[in-house]
Automatic annotation (TrEMBL):
Gene Ontology MF, one: metal ion binding
Keyword vocabulary terms for this entry: ATP-binding, Magnesium, Metal-binding, Nucleotide-binding, Nucleotidyltransferase, Transferase
Protein name: Selenoprotein O
GO cellular component entries: chloroplast thylakoid
Family annotation (NCBIfam families): PRK00029.1
A Pfam family the protein falls into: SelO
Organism per entry: Capsicum annuum
Transmembrane portions of the chain: none
Cofactor or coenzyme needed: Mg(2+)
Top-level taxon of origin: Eukaryota
Amino acid sequence: MLSHISTSPFFLRPSLLLPSTTAKLPYYPFQFPIQQKRHRFVLSETRAAAATSMDSVAIENVEKRCKLSLEELNWDNSFVNELPADPINDNIPRQVLHACYTKVLPSVPVSNPQLVAWSDSVAELLELDPKEFERPDFPLIFSGASPLVGAISYAQNYGGHQFGTWAGQLGDGRAITLGEILNSKSQRWELQLKGAGKTPYSRFADGLAVLRSSIREFLCSEAMHGLGIPTTQALCLVTTGKDVLRDMFYDGNPKNEPGAIVCRVAQSFLRFGSYQLHASRGKRDFEIVCALADYAIRYHFPHLENRTRSEGISLNAGEENNSAVDLTSNKYAAWAVEVAERTASTIARWQDVGFTHGVMNTDNMSVLGLTIDYGPFGFLDAFDPSYTPNTTDLPGRRYCFANQPDVGLWNIAQFTAALSTAELLSDEEADYVMERYGNKFMDDYQDIMTRKLGLANYNQKLISELLKNMAIDKVDYTNFFRSLSNIKADPAIPEDKLLIPLKAVLLDIGMERNEAWTSWVKWYIHELSTTGVSDEERKISMNSINPKYILRNYLCQSAIDAAEKGDFGEVRQLLKVMQCPFDEQPGMDKYAQLPPAWASRPGVCMLSCSS
């Protein structure tokens, strides 16, 4: 159990805090060809006009191909075609053995389903014509009540550790994948309906979802994408027109809530637990672990198939011994390293924006390094390293904000243990994967914090003192870093004027704390004055990494309250704001305000897993 609390937003065991071996990619400026003799490029007016006309036709044809109807989507369905299936068709809760999935159809009852919100940017990824959202049957299709031509729907089989304890088989208990779509760029996208009905993995649950949690997942996945953080996304959100019984606080007082379904979109929904389950079931299933690894590499890490020593892969296993890990001779080791590094980078970005996932179980960890499964998440308001948005996590705060980097490492250890059990990794390779996680997290986190403060170099003491001050005075995390760009790098500013740029975020601090902040700002200004960067240039740079808008829980709740009364306007407006979180967006300042007093009520500032 990770129970330690500190003002630092990350904790990693000292053995992992090693200098990074990750090489920086070289910068290649655009190369322009030497000017050629003019006659080689001259076309007659007739030929030029013809070429222009042909180009216009080609562009028009491409645009037409990239605006597809639902019936024209290119389904590939590699997962069901290439991996072992459940031979039993009964859709009843049970242990599913020696299989990666069960074919199952959506079965949620619906009555006049309605489209709540949609994402034009996700439609663009799928090359879906935005006019398809206007179809009268669109809500029926994405509630699962009407089938999509070409889709082969299934529920995935996986296990996981929940709050540090092995839970055995879990699986998609209410998420049904429709299949995979290939766009014209050969990009693969899975579509999945969350809340679409029972599956063999539903256990004692009903396989349904409510509007409250579906709005949160829809908005947060798109907000995280807007922040530039790897994430699943969402194509659309529909109501089912039927009520769902939920005990929101697990206090024995269930009530009916509006039902809903969100269509989640990702390159893959493979999880750490996808490998753990089969590794836990003995030698017969080791082949499935290998098949799943081969599948992931083939479709999502194809560059690892034919790696050679000439590609400059780091083979050093660490500084404490002279043993080597040859990533070129074992593609599974190279793959595990990349999974670890992607995970580390994503969690570093969580720490950057103050995001707390809330349920970092291994079944909620993507092998693509995506943020996945938005349940009782929360963004920091007042900076509190021990903050957890999940009421279930309160006793030990295992998944609190400060613990997330350590939990990521623990989860990677479980993932590599599964691969080692299936004889895909050696012990040395597994240790090296974890070392690379630590290196990558520290590299990315230090780079992020340096840029958040507009510094030339990482300054651990300066940043640690800042976080300590923020925790003491419960300073709003997002608004503080956004305001920090207003400070001028002028050492001649009078001491009594130093805190003026921060007066909106340093609220109700006494004289003693005023002195502490003044001392820190003087130190900070001294560091800024050595960078040689103008105040204007630094402000632009800092505002490109420090968002003005984050999806605070109270904003979600306001949208939920309106939607439950039939008004979906606030959901759509909030989506629009969160898609551009770094922009000033005149007239939208209310979405950057601190939480009101009512936001402290149960179900807003903290939530349960009930959804």
